[in-house]
Design brief:
Elements: H1 3-20, H2 24-30, H3 34-42, H4 61-74, H5 76-91, H6 97-101, E1 107-109, H7 113-116, E2 123-126, E3 129-132, E4 144-148, E5 153-157
Parallel strand pairs: 1-4
Antiparallel strand pairs: 2-3, 4-5
Length: 159
Amino acid sequence: MMEEYEILRNTVREFANKEIENISKDIEIKGIPDTLVLKLGAQGFLAATAPQEKGGSGLDELGYIIVLEELSRVSPSVAMKVFLTNFYLQLNPDDDVNYIASGKKRVSVAFPDYYARGKSGKVEVSAGKINATKENVINANVEAIALTDGKDVYAVSKE
């Protein structure tokens, strides 16, 4: 493996061991603390795949996989948070990357009924507009929500 990837792996591993490993059980039970989200942002993980000129880290695919792999080793929830935030930024490249990358603006994803195992509203797209009923809320402290109808994903404002 190239030296730069080894440096990245060691950096992420050191961060994960220092900042996440000791609280990983609490994270899985209580959620990711705001202070950790801000640290993830400061390390560049929340916008790992966003271009540098837009405020991201500009990692290529292998670098991004290394970040997710090392984070998931100590906390699957933290790795999923990083994955979902980067996924949102790929869907919304014109959104305020710096604000999201910092961890100050939260994003979340809503899943259809067959994933959530509960009642969720139907998502319909007509004439470029999304109509949906929100019955389940995963995290109410977010700025945007991604909706999926099983084949397409839509990121929308929480309003």
